[in-house]
Design goal:
Helices cover 37% and strands 15% of the residues. It has nine helices and ten strands. The chain has a five-stranded parallel beta sheet with strand order 5-4-3-10-9.
């Protein structure tokens, strides 16, 4: 693949094109300086921020993360992390829209319990309906159920984000076939969200045909977050190129790299 082909391989979220298919979070870093350096090393263009846990202007006396991750450089993706019911998720999105001067792009997650952080699918669907009807561009965190993923797409979500494994677990993609089925049936971007542990996990997601990967803990909890962010960037790029190239068929037996057919002895 030529460099020009790679650079032209963009994907679109809510009508805006992006070159980087790696989306990153902002939690769990030791300080804002490390946050900024890791995110810069990742090459990410979309950065998600937990509105309930991070100051984006609601607390005037605290450091504002938007002073480090400026909206003129990054697309800010407010998320509803920490919300366990429809009302709190919807209120959080309204707060983000107010603080960010009418910003419409949000990441919706409605969690089911504190131990697994799995999504509450019924409440997620209900919140998505409310937010879409209210004019939000909703990127939605869900489980890896192809039926639910299609329902969320049909509601009007601009991207569907199935988990690969529990949030922060680093277990990698536990059910590749479900992710593949979601991708094959989708007409909106599909991004793996949660469970990635290292660069090879990110590459697998891209090789399955996902449009992108969102991660936080895999970078922030690494021994060297800045170096891991760089590794994730390369994993995403390698996986995407492998998907576009089309892998060879898997075979049970050997196939010589130098075929002997037609060889003169």
């Amino acid at each position: 693949m030529t460099a020009s082909t790679t650079s032209a391989d963009t994907f679109s979220i809510a009508g805006r094109d992006y070159q980087s298919r790696l989306l990153v979070g902002t939690g769990k870093y030791k300080d804002m300086d490390e946050t900024a350096r890791a995110i810069a090393a990742s090459g990410a263009e979309i950065v998600t921020i937990a509105v309930r846990r991070t100051n984006i202007g609601q607390n005037a006396d605290e450091p504002n993360i938007l002073e480090v991750l400026t909206p003129d450089r990054y697309t800010i993706l407010p998320n509803t992390a920490g919300c366990y019911d429809v009302d709190s998720a919807v209120r959080t999105c309204h707060l983000a829209r107010e603080l960010l001067d009418g910003h419409k792009l949000v990441k919706l997650e409605v969690l089911g319990d504190q131990k697994t952080l799995f999504p509450d699918v019924l409440q997620t669907v209900e919140a998505a309906k409310i937010l879409v009807a209210d004019g939000f561009d909703v990127m939605v965190y869900t489980n890896d159920d192809p039926i639910v993923a299609k329902q969320l797409e049909e509601i009007g979500c601009v991207a569907v984000m199935p988990l690969a494994a529990p949030i922060g677990s680093g277990l990698g993609i536990r059910n590749r076939l479900n992710i593949l089925t979601i991708v094959e049936n989708a007409k909106v971007p599909i991004l793996v969200d949660a469970g990635v542990g290292t660069a090879s996990d990110a590459a697998v997601a891209m090789e399955l045909g996902c449009d992108g990967v969102l991660m936080n803990t895999a970078i922030a909890a690494a021994k060297d977050p800045v170096l891991m962010a760089s590794a994730m960037r390369k994993g995403i790029e390698a996986g995407r190129e492998a998907f576009l190239a089309g892998r060879m068929p898997a075979k049970r037996f050997a196939s010589a790299s130098s075929p002997i057919e037609g060889t003169f002895f």
